[in-house]
């Protein structure tokens, strides 16, 4: 099952320019696509447009060849697991209860949880390294712990497509690596994965394909080796960089200091 953007173009009311300008990409099973770019380049708008959460001036978002707008939201939630960039938990649920919310599309509003639901939640807790936190109230968690709960909730949905917007924000080195290792493993098992991130070096190590956005347009699209070129990155981020190669062959981005400081 593919999630596809075709010529997505978005203009927010009152804005002078386009938030997205003709963006196309396809997220297929067994493929991890990472979207990067400067602040304000359209990354989160792309996620919202893909999910049918913002009006389009032009283009289409397609799930399995059908317009996302034509899918019932409950059915869509069974297929696509989403971790948005920002979210606050209103009610002081326990971690286990918060992750169980991921089973709502399968249960409906009144059905009681069953063994399969509890098993899905336990598996998600373990995969996100938060089983020891299962009885904690979510309002007592650190930012990184809460982020992992949100990812676990998406996994509890048992989706076929996983969309994560800045999932490693607030995570330390270990948990950021664990998260990307987990997403990579899920994609290898057959999920389609889309990750929006500012962490270019994590993207380079795990992505099959990288899409860089700049001012709402696709500035580069290809494998990490094709995209992570000093001239491309310097142009997109307006900052000089070098690109080194790790022992595993993945490119790594090194920001440089400008002579004379930021005024140059």
In brief:
The chain has 10 helices and 12 strands. It has 264 residues and is of the alpha/beta class.
Q: How would you describe this structure to a colleague?
A:
The chain is α/β, with parallel strands linked by helices. It has ten helices and twelve strands. The protein has helices at residues 43-50, 73-79, 95-100, 104-107, 115-127, 143-156, 173-188, 200-206, 224-227, 230-237, and strands at residues 3-10, 20-27, 32-36, 58-63, 66-67, 80-83, 161-165, 192-196, 209-214, 217-222, 241-245, 251-255. The strands form three sheets. Strands 6-7-8-3-9-10 form a six-stranded mixed sheet, sandwiched between helices. A four-stranded antiparallel sheet has the order 2-1-4-5, with helices on one face. The chain has a two-stranded antiparallel sheet with strand order 11-12. The longest helix is centred in the last third of the chain and has 16 residues, at 173-188. The radius of gyration is 19 Å and the shape is globular. The termini are far apart. 37% of the residues are buried.
Total number of beta strands: 12
Element order: H for helix, E for strand:
EEEHEEHEHHHHEHEHEEHHEE
**Beginning-to-end CA distance, first to last residue:** 48 Å
* Shape category: globular
Given helix and strand content, the structural type is alpha/beta
Parts with pLDDT < 50 across at least 5 consecutive residues: none
Please give the order of strands in the largest beta sheet.
Answer: 6-7-8-3-9-10
Overall average pLDDT? 92
- Percent helix, as a range, is 25-40%
